[in-house]
Amino acid sequence: AQSVSQHNHHVILSEAASLELGCNYSYGGTVNLFWYVQYPGQHLQLLLKYFSGDPLVKGIKGFEAEFIKSKFSFNLRKPSVQWSDTAEYFCAVLPMDSNYQLIWGAGTKLIIKP
Amino acid sequence: DGGITQSPKYLFRKEGQNVTLSCEQNLNHDAMYWYRQDPGQGLRLIYYSQIVNDFQKGDIAEGYSVSREKKESFPLTVTSAQKNPTAFYLCASSPWTGHDGELFFGEGSRLTVL
Question: Residue A83 pLDDT > 70, yes or no?
Answer without folding.
Answer: yes
